[in-house]
Amino acid sequence: MQYLGMIAGLLNKLGKIGVIVGFCLGNAAITYFTNGNTVPIITIREILIASLGLLLIPKTVKIDIEDIIGKTKYLPTTGGVLEGSTEEAVNKLNTFSETISEMARSCNDVANENTQTDLELKIEARESFKDELINNIEDFTENILYDDLIEDENILDDIYELLEEKEDINKEELFEIFQKNNNYIIGVDEENKNEQVEEDVKNIVKAVNQTYRINKLNIVWKQKEAAHKKMLANQLGGVSKVISSIADNIEETTEKTIKTEEKPQYKVEIVSTVATKNKSEISGDTFIHTKLHDGKFMMAISDGMGSGKNAKKSSSTVIKMLERLLTTGFDKDVSIGLINSAVNLNSTEDTYATIDLSVIDVNNGEIEFIKNGASPTFIKNKNKVEVIKSVELPAGIVDNIDLVVYNKKVAENNIIVMCSDGILESNEELANKEIWVKDFLENIETEDIKEIADLLLNEAINNGNGIAQDDMTVLVAKIKNIV
By C-alpha distance, which of 363, 359, 476, 478 is closest to 413? Predict the structure, then answer.
């Protein structure tokens, strides 16, 4: 019920009418999402009475609800996990996490039991087709081809092989298969044409093609069902990890309250610059740099496949989820695992997005580099440049990902350069694309990070004869000691 009050409150600036409208909208929304139908939680009659009462009460009248109904709670308590002590809340969360994890294991076991090799699926499809065809022609006992189809399995095998190749069979091809197996159909040539034989052949051809189409559809759905069960297991596993992470965060937060807050030793300056692919209205790159809940700084780039609306949708999904999860304290590998599942679940076959994440700890100067299909990151220290790279696949390509985390201790005035692959791929002459960026950064004398970002972007555009051949994003950060 609190959500009804929230929606009504959002429209309270419109006066009593606004509150009534907001309450009606809230009731409709909760009815749909709770019941899944149109039977209202609060009836129209009740809303009408309440609305009239609200309109008839003067603004000058102030009413304390507790004076009318008292302080007794008439609604049952929810027994939420946050009630009681911290230890109790953590135990409930862990129990819930274990339950969800068990559900995930169960789904995964079922999916694995039903997983078949390509050869097994092919054999099953063939046998299923033959059985279904025999069932579908059981009323054709008087058909001239019936006995041969029932008794000669080689004919059925040959028919299926041809259907696998062409997905359809005609009467001439059917005749060839019968002849191949020393069965000759009399009454189908022009000289000895028989209308009944023609009708028999026509009925069998129709039955064969219909059976194959239905059989193929059933096999496709069976494969999809197995894939969905596998994906559900991955989703439940991710939810379990998130709940477990919440429990860990509660414990960590409780412990930190009794400790003196660590003073940061470093500060971070971050700049960005971008370019959209020539003739593309929307960049497929999305980036963010922001402060996390524990005082660390996050820099992230996600590069959607290609350019345009679909690429932007994939990359923005990744960045938005990263921001929401990491800024509220979720574990990084759990967060990226969930993001991968979300992209996988909502994407098409050819849609994916890279994840390039750097987390800078201003207390000790350590940086975590987490990459999933992303371009290398460059650490510049005067005229020396170190390259951090990974060969992991982008988010959404595989069901499970094994993240590789690189930890690096940086010194004062180190400059971190992150970029999308549009920067690296702009140089078509080199097979090893990061070489030109590394050499370029080593030869830049300025330590102004805005200049570095602009110079690198301009050089990438110049590599394409002054045209951005792909979406390009550059993030540059500088680590400084706090004096």
Answer: 478
Give the start-to-end residue ranges of the domains of the chain. 2-69, 85-259, 263-481
CB neighbours of residue 105 within 10 Å:
14
Run of H or E including 52: helix 44-56
Residues 6 or more apart in contact with residue 262 via CB below 8 angstroms = 363
The whole-model pTM stands at 0.53
The answer to whether 436 touches 385, Cβ cutoff 8 Å, is no
Residues 6+ apart with CB under 8 A from 271: 449, 450, 453, 475, 476, 477
54-70, pLDDT tens digit by residue?
Answer: 555 655 555 554 554 45
State how beta strands 415-419 and 404-409 pair: unpaired
Q: Any idea what DSSP says for residue 272?
A: E
Cβ atoms of 197 and 187 within 8 Å: the answer is yes
**Start-to-end CA span in the chain (Å):** 53
Hey, what CATH topology would domain 263-481 get?
A: Phosphatase 2c; domain 1 (3.60.40)
**Would you call 289 helix, strand, or coil by DSSP?**
strand
